[in-house]
Fold this protein.
Amino acid sequence: MHNDLEKILFTEQEIANRVKEMADVINKDFENRPITLVVILKGSAIFAADLVRHLTSDIDIEFIRLSSYGNGSVSSQKVDIIGGLNFDVNGKNIIVVEDIIDTGTTLSKFKEIILSQNPESLKICSLLNKPARRVSVIEADYKGFDIENEFVVGYGLDYAQKYRNLPYIGVLKRSVYEK
Ligand code: 5GP
Ligand code: MG
């Protein structure tokens, strides 16, 4: 385990198993209807890469960046799409792929933007869910794991751009972000 971590929450194998289960549910729901995956960079890229390889529909992948955390561990309130929404949503089956829903602010704002463009359908797929800190009313349609109110890194999730490459998900030591 990386020295900056307090503990591992989900191992590489546990994540792989859960991602496959999530994909199985999506495959059942969509019955091979085409899907546009909207991947929220950077955190969700690794999750999306694993998920998409289990999906059986025709898949179109779009990547977007939302302004959020900066380098801190406290969520900011304002949400912008960096570079704007530069793909067609109208009439598409959209699945938004997110790494973690925390306060829910990011996704609820982004959901409004997508809905205003008349998709055929819109689903939210989040690997992690931190219900303790929810401010906005939003739930994922496809959810990997519920976690406690702890700051986690690994499998795409960062702290100050570090730790994304860890193959597991773990809790960052407080001493790392409080120094
Ligand atoms: P929300 O708007 O739901 O509060 O924040 C969502 C975003 O905050 C996530 O997409 C993620 O980038 C970041 N975030 C929230 N909790 C954590 C966490 O425990 N670890 C990391 N690395 N990022 C988090
Ligand atoms: Mg994110």
